[in-house]
Design a protein that fits this description.
Blueprint: H1 4-9, E1 15-19, H2 22-30, E2 34-38, H3 45-58, E3 64-68, H4 80-84, H5 89-101, H6 123-134, E4 140-143, H7 150-158, E5 162-167, H8 170-179, E6 183-187, E7 193-194, H9 200-211, E8 217-220, H10 226-234, E9 239-242, H11 250-256, H12 259-267, E10 273-276, E11 284-287, H13 290-295, H14 308-323, H15 346-364
Parallel strand pairs: 1-2, 1-9, 2-3, 3-4, 4-5, 5-6, 6-8, 8-9
Antiparallel strand pairs: 7-11, 10-11
Helix pairs in contact: 2-3, 3-6, 5-14, 8-9, 10-15
Amino acid sequence: MRTDLCDRLGIEHPIVGFTPSEHVAAAISRAGGLGVLGAVRYNDPDELAAALDWLDKNTDGRPYGVDVVMPMKAPTEGSIGDLSKLVPPAHRDFVEKTLHELGVPPLPASDNPDGDGVLGWLHSVARAHVEIALEHRPALIANALGSPPADVIAQAHDRGILVAALAGRVDHALRQVADGVDIVVAQGSEAGGHTGEIGSMVLLPEIVDAVGGSVPVLGAGGIGSGRQLVAALALGASGVWMGSTWLLTEEYANGLGQTAVSQALLKASSADTVRARIYSGKMARLVKSRWTEAWAAPDAPDPLPMPLQNLLVGEAHRRIAAADDPDVVAMPAGQIIGRFDHLQPVATIIEDIVREAEATRARLAP
């Protein structure tokens, strides 16, 4: 199952896996894919440095990547105090009332650092994440919000690091290639997290036709099996970008202690997700829960723009995680979660995907 992407990234299988867990990222890389660690959860850049140090030591010398959340143009910035003044009191009241109704207790004062939940979404902190990544040995730096700033792309290229960007429309992909991005990730609306409105079956060949002759394109959104990998390759992709699948792994559940999240995802069907701006201020797909239902109620306020929405709900997300209630989770997840009903090791999932992909190709072209 080799494609040109494998040669570009130095991997065995055309599988790129995004994850917030360094344990999952390392397991993906060791299994022959490219594990990409999401940096946004690291409010303290030193914590990201420690995670990348760990990856350097636990990937058996194999490549990995780092994903940042960095708009090309800096959004509203300022101190946490300045930003807090922009959050309407009515929004804060709604969040506190909702948490009380859902039975989510407050955090201990010692576990609630000032500004938690927003720092990782600020442009300045994203730049610090990039600087730390460049001090390590990633094969790829990806940006969830399109093209990184030109100087970031140049710095990565100077160090021989490829740059990827996620695109939800053809015009996004064309702009990214013009900006100097090396790999375009065509992410359909089925995907978890920040995602657009066009489904993968339509979006992927559109983007391949537009830019596939100049850069490789990865298919993303609704991919979790060998048949879906082959389908993406048939549509012109050089490989796949997978995220939600890794949330249903033993390494994720054990590494981050996400017991409630695992339970919520395992019992969810492909119909149990929702697209909304409640997570960060930008449209994202989340698993349905009592938390998402509260934001869909008639009396709920409109979500705020990024990064104010994340500042509003950052502590709430931490409280929800600490409450460990599978009915009250705030977790980005794609429709592919309906495929899984038990946790598996990362290596087993990749092995199954590759085996099924090879069998599918043999069936189609005996």
